[in-house]
From TrEMBL:
PROSITE patterns: MADF (PS51029). It comes from the Eukaryota. Pfam families: MADF_DNA_bdg. Residues 109-130 are annotated as: Disordered. This is Putative Alcohol dehydrogenase transcription factor Myb/SANT-like-containing protein 27. InterPro entries: MADF-dom. Residues 109-122 have a biased composition (Polar residues). Residues 16-102 form the MADF domain.
Length: 130
């Protein structure tokens, strides 16, 4: 395989690459001293390349792509979690007989009462308070 050719990665081959990476914690475990040793990491990549019969550059390229893809998916999940609006919130309260999900409160409840709000302009406004 020339350096310009790309390996055809299917899910089985990708899983094999991940399994090989798991064998070498110096490639991914930042808490290890070996993680900071370039020679250790280079030797691990060489061994993985030999096992998969691929050039080292293809191993590092594919691993980089997998990391980028994972980070992209994690950002999407994080954005989705932080983007939860009031309509998506599930209220759990012992006083409710059931969970309230995506309720639309367009009309004030009958329990709301009228009250006058003082204003700095001297004019009072009618408002409803629940």
């Amino acid at each position: 395989m020339s350096s310009n050719e790309r390996w055809k990665w299917d899910s089985d081959k990708t899983m094999l690459l991940i399994q090989q990476y798991e064998r070498f914690p110096e490639l991914w475990n930042v808490s290890l001293m070996e993680y900071r040793k370039k020679e250790k990491k280079t030797n691990a990549i060489k061994e993985i390349a030999e096992i998969l019969n691929l050039p080292e550059s293809e191993i590092t390229r594919k691993w980089h792509n997998l990391l980028c893809q994972m980070n992209s998916e994690m950002r999407k999940l994080k954005k989705k979690k932080s983007g939860i609006g009031a309509d998506d919130v599930i209220l759990k309260d012992p006083s409710f007989s059931q969970n309230v999900v995506n309720e639309e409160f367009t009309q004030p409840s009958e329990q709301c009462q009228d009250y006058l709000t003082p204003s700095t302009s001297g004019i009072e406004h009618d408002k409803k308070r629940c």
